[in-house]
Amino acid sequence: MGIVVVEVCDGNAITKIDIEGIIESEFPEVAVLKNECLAFCGLCRVRPFALVNNRRIFGKTVEECLDKVRAAIKEELAVYQ
User: Fold this and answer.
1) What is d(CA 30, CA 2) in angstroms, rounded to the nearest whole number?
2) 57 - beta bridge partners?
3) I want to staple 48 with a disulfide (CB 3.0 to 4.6 A). Which of 13, 25, 29, 54 is the partner?
4) CA 38 to chain CA mean position, Å
5) What pairs with residue 52 in β-bridges?
6) pLDDT tens digits for 66-79?
7) What is the DSSP string of 11-71?
8) Burial of 33 (0-12, 13-18, 19+ CB in 10 A)
9) CB of 80 within 8 A of CB of 63?
10) Which of 78, 54, 68, 60 lies closest to 19, judged by CA?
11) What angle do the packed helices 62-78 and 19-26 form, to 10 degrees?
12) 77 with 4: CB under 8 angstroms?
């Protein structure tokens, strides 16, 4: 398990890209977990989102969300460097 955990819901738009492959190749110390449901009822249908160490990250588009996830990961990793 990584020191930073990114969780995504299977029904979320962000899973249209290979977020697991993208994030884990860019950040080896990060684990991406796909869950059937993250219990934020309906949120996954409204806009792309992910949890980064339990912090909700949103974007209007998949690309914007991915960029914000990367930024949140960098903030989390800065604590350990």
Assistant:
1) 4
2) 50
3) 13
4) 12
5) 6, 55
6) 999 999 999 999 98
7) TSGGGGS-HHHHHHHH-TTEEEEEES--S-TTHHHHS-EEEETTEEEE-SSHHHHHHHHHH
8) middle
9) no
10) 68
11) 30
12) yes
Collapsed DSSP state (helix, strand, coil) of residue 77: helix
- Dihedral sign of CA atoms 35, 16, 18, 65 in order: negative
34 is written with which tokens? Answer: 């796909």
**Lookup: tokens for 71:** 């930024």
Question: Which structure tokens are listed for 60?
Answer: 């209007």
The residue written with tokens 């806009």 in the block is 47
Does the global pTM surpass 0.85?
yes
Query: What is the Cα–Cα distance from 79 to 66, expressed in whole angstroms?
Result: 21
The answer to whether residues 73 and 27 touch, using CB atoms and an 8 Å cutoff, is: yes
How far apart (Å, rounded) are the C-alpha atoms in residues 79 and 46?
Answer: 31
Tokens read off for 77:
């990793």
**Average of per-residue pLDDT across 8-26:** 91
